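note to self: the first set is below, dont mix up w the second
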Amino acid sequence: MTEENAAKRLKTSPPLIGTHNGHFHADEALAVYLLRLLPTYNTFSLLRTRNPALLSTCHTVVDVGGEYDPHTNRYDHHQRSFTTTFPSRSTKLSSAGLVYLHFGRSIIAQHTKLPEGSPKLTVLWEKLYADFIEALDAHDNGISVYDPADTASLQKRFHDGGINLGSLVGDINQNWSDTSRQESNNKTESTPEREQEEEDQRFLEASSLMGTTFLRKLDYYHRAWLPARTVVHTAYSSRKEHEPKGRVMVFERSVPWKDHLYSLEAEHSDDPKVVYVLYSEGPHEGSKWRIQAVSVSGDSFESRKPLPEAWRGVRDEQLDGVTGIEGCVFVHASGFIGGNKTFKGAMEMALKGLEL
């Protein structure tokens, strides 16, 4: 079939989302999934090609075509003139970021039932970009987390395998051994059409991986992280009831507190920082309590003040003897967390930890 006839046939088919064929990445895999979450795109078919004539038949094109124009539904980022970023961020967008920039609010509103103009929706929109989408944008655009000049003399303590969503999507792509095995096992002669069908199925698998991960993140931020903000604000306001300088904060049960605490501390930069956080292990009366040392930053393993060295790695009655506090359960070997059978015991551990 000629390119012209193929294009004519596609124009009579259901509306199309177009992206490139060949090796696929996390950004366009997510971009396609995000579009299909919306009622407008839910029934659209997918066309993966680099043929300009075929792409011209598509309603919307992502990650290919060398054009960014929301008015014509073109969302590519590879052209040299492209410099678009998310509001208040410096990372150049990929196709995932572009689709999220234009459609993210609608997607969040659809799944949370929040009005698109609500402040809570804006908080979620910005949070999901900063904690999920931006890393995909940076990876696809070859932007390092750190300035290479700042890390030139650093050496890794261990090999982390580079495991992330981008690498998992990369693993779904067909590799040379898959092709060789299929050629030897498949009695049916391989054709370009069959190879493209196989590649498209792999792309849909990658798209599902990215999309379901996005939805889990959205659900967590909407149902757990966002409501926790009010809880953390209340605990922060009442922290001096437990320790005169406000260095111990208490929750009736564990909530996602770190992001909200760091934001509050930035707003109250002249106040002493919280050192220990206490929370119940469960909602039931008699539940044990945890004491956790606050880390120096959200992505750090270093604590502002770990629990005392003499307590670390010790448990139960032996820990009672070392601390002089009844009901101790454990203190982690690194000192970042510990436990006690009661709130009173956990508070005593916190107050003594501040002194030592």
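second set (the one i keep forgetting abt)
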Amino acid sequence: MADIAFPSLAKSTKLPNGTIYTYVHVLPKGSKPYLLLLHGWPSSSYDWRHQISYFQDRGYGLIVPDLLGYGGTDKPMEKEAYRLKKMSEEVIGILDAEGVKGCVGVAHDWGSTFLSRLATYYPDRFTKFCWIDVGYNVPTGEEFSIDAVDEMAKKIIGWPIFGYWHFFNDEDAGPLMDRNHECINSLIFPHNYAWMRDNMCYPNVTRSYLEEQKTGPIAPWISKEEMAMHNYILAAKDGGYGPTLMWYKCQIANLNRPDEEEIPEEKKQIKQPTLMIAAKYDYIGVPKLEVGGMQPYVKDLKVVEFETGHWVQLEMPMETSKAMEDFLEGK
């Protein structure tokens, strides 16, 4: 939540379509570029706290939004509001409001899929890209199917990766998460990397985990104070988990498909220099799948792999920031 976590840097803007976004804004110094940092699920601009500090100290400009459904930004409960093309128009609206003509796109998790569409809808607004954990996701225009993704994953890596999506599509998923922060936190930030695979990747296990109020050890790299802030940002009184799940529900309903069918083949290629920071021990964003999916479409690709789980930029913040900086500086 930009206005709570970064009060001196936070701004809000009402876009022409009436949607209000809250975001971190840092002006660049000298010739340093702007970085657009896009978070994933379930989080906010707070996920980028280490990178905000690192790059602000080095003079980079920053635009770090609470994306739709999160933090201080609007939280509609209609699936259609979460179409990637519509949200792309909104984030470009933030850049326009701040006079940012070009920037470096950086993203993690769902933010990575979102950046993939920004890259195809607005390629001229980006000079470089950095995908973290989840890579560039090419728009196929084909029908999305959880089961099809899981069958593909099982053939390549031996286990499904999207089993939890079935639960996330259920009407009671948000309220169940809102009532069980300790449970969901132990799934999202597990001490044991394989915990996420065993309790999220397979069908039905995530619902059972929450309904039975299971818990497990939390990763050592997130402090009690940071966890408290995470819980505060996702508190039920401020919308909770429900709006955040609309990203999944929109995709499952294939509401992005008509937009993606119209994307020409030439726009599916990424021409800008690109960094992919892979997570060796993420059982959902598996490097073999993520990097393999990028290579046919990203010609100027540099890959760095860290020995982390899903939350690369939180688990190894200095290493992640330094890898990004080296890439930006052409090292």
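remember for set 2: The two ends are 33 Å apart (CA to CA).
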